[in-house]
Amino acid sequence: MFSKKHSKLEVVIGAETVIKGEISSKGTVRIDGRLEGDITADCVIIGDSGSIVGDVAAKTFIAGGKLHGNVRSSESVEILPRGEINGDIMTARLSVAEGAMFEGHSMMQKNHNLEYKPVEVLQ
């Protein structure tokens, strides 16, 4: 589920961890626990045991777990066989594996219309 084409792994939320709040990263964020809040990153990955209740803005989004919120992705969204998305998806490319669940609307647009706006790093 994680290949070299993704940016540097910056944040990992473990399976027994719950975070309430927003996450912003210029790298890859992997969620194996639970996030209650919005997330902005280059790449967001939800592991099989992970869940997000909030919106996701990323270049690339991979759902192996559950998302209850909307996705705005400038490059691609991939829903793996055990992945579930309950919300709207706006992306340039969408891949839904057999067995995946998606309930919402999808809008396919060219990359330039879906800028995810990378975060400003505080000094």
From TrEMBL:
Pfam families: Bactofilin. It comes from the Bacteria. InterPro entries: BacA/B. This is Bactofilin. PANTHER family: HYPOTHETICAL CYTOSOLIC PROTEIN, POLYMER-FORMING CYTOSKELETAL PROTEIN. Belongs to the bactofilin family.
